Amino acid sequence: MLLIPAGVLLLLSIPFSCATASPGILEVDLSFPRNGSIYKPVSLIPVVFSVKGQALASLAEASIGWSVRSDVNSSLFNVGTIDLKTPNNSLPEDPYFVSSYLSIQAGIEGSWLFDWVVDYSRCSPKDGSVLREAYDSSFRFTTSNGAQPPTLETAGTSCDNAQNFAVNVTAVATSRSRDPNDPNYCAVLGENPTASLCAANVNASSAAVLNAAIHRTACVEGRVNCTKADLSSAMSFSSQQSLLWVITALGAISALVL
């Protein structure tokens, strides 16, 4: 179990007062699986998003949801969520990658519909209350036993079929919402920016790190066979990640709040 000092928890629980953030772009790009691609059906198919603006993702309370269903009969196979405020399977870098996996039984061929959504909050331009909004997208990919196994390396890939989401966070303001469940702060958004991370580079070394992170998650969740040593190592790594993201969040708060 990760033990976070009480003082750290107190700082994280302090709501933002009226504050101003430097202009910044929050961007989420789907890196894998790829639109229109064909993969060999294996037990763990990576799900990877590239994210720019972790501090802004936290301010906007952003999260990613995704699902995979059969393109033939719409049967749901997998669902997943990734909290971008304190994401798993990533180190506090910017831009950074967050990862999960989908599990289609090995050897199963078919056409699949991948739906994904970014949920986030913003200040209402009318009354300063908190608005909940969402961006959603979808695409198809195929599994075939004659295809190559999935690979995360992106060298030489283009942005032609890239899918992404981006907002321009210009400031942070005190929320005027009367709903007690709403936060005391919200992100002020400007005009929609142009996305820029569609060609985020994943080299062989980065791909190996992401694959290891995905295997650790599958190990903890009992999706793959692993030894007690593997399980202990995976849980220890997750705790270290959580502490790093707490430290990063504190730094973001001190930098953004006046």
Automatic annotation (TrEMBL):
Sorted UniProt keywords: Signal
Protein name as it appears in the record: DUF7136 domain-containing protein
Signal peptide coordinates: 1-21
One Pfam family per UniProt: DUF7136
Taxonomy, superkingdom: Eukaryota
Lineage: Eukaryota, Fungi, Dikarya, Ascomycota, Pezizomycotina
Domain DUF7136 stretches: 22-222
Source species: Dissoconium aciculare CBS 342.82
